[in-house]
Amino acid sequence: MRKYLAEFIGTFVLVLFGCGTAVFANSGALPAPIGLLGISFAFGLSIVAMAYSIGNISGCHVNPAVSLAMLLTGKLSVTDFIGYIVAQFLGATAASALIPAIKGFATANIGGLGQNGYGALSAIGLDMWGAIIVEVVLTFVFVLVILGVTSKEKYSSVAGLVIGFTLTLIHILGIPLTGTSVNPARSFGPALVGMNTNPDAFAQVWVFILAPLVGAALAALVFKVLFDKAEEK
Questions:
Q1: Are the C-beta atoms of residues 132 and 138 closer than 8 Å to each other?
Q2: How far is residue 176's CA from residue 63's CA, in Å, rounded to a whole number?
Q3: Which terminus of the chain has a smaller tally of CB atoms within 10 A, N or C?
């Protein structure tokens, strides 16, 4: 239960600070919205903070795609995989529910919950197949980095920084395309809580659940081949 609670907290923090920054800091209420880089760093730094606080408890997956990759590479049991997934989705949903609760105390007109989307919900109008390809590729890169940097004990001191800055890099490219998911829980929470005001985002959320899982599975497969070859050598 300690591990599951850690995953709940970690995912809660990721969604609250990442999506919350996208919602509040770019609401138009501030004279200078923080923009693409600010949101990207909010997500990345959230991972850094959680990696060095709960990483020694649960590994700080805070992402069902990461947990799937760990399961496929034999680093996570089926029981823990289920527990992690439940905790991550609950944490993301709780954080998503807190955002409109905070908005209720504000006088400025603030819309959205940081949902992912394609078509009219994409900043550049990316279509569904484009969104699927983007999310598969971005998640593949992200998870491959995680598997690589956590595979050796000597990398443990810098793993959180590497993973956090990789997530920042991925958001810099992905935000204009899909809003960047690479994390089914992060997509599901805002889509569920905001389904009444933005039903299109909820209707599209299956893409941002399925595509990251496919990307994670591919990353696990490639890593296993590379790692096994390295071990043989």
A1: no
A2: 21
A3: C
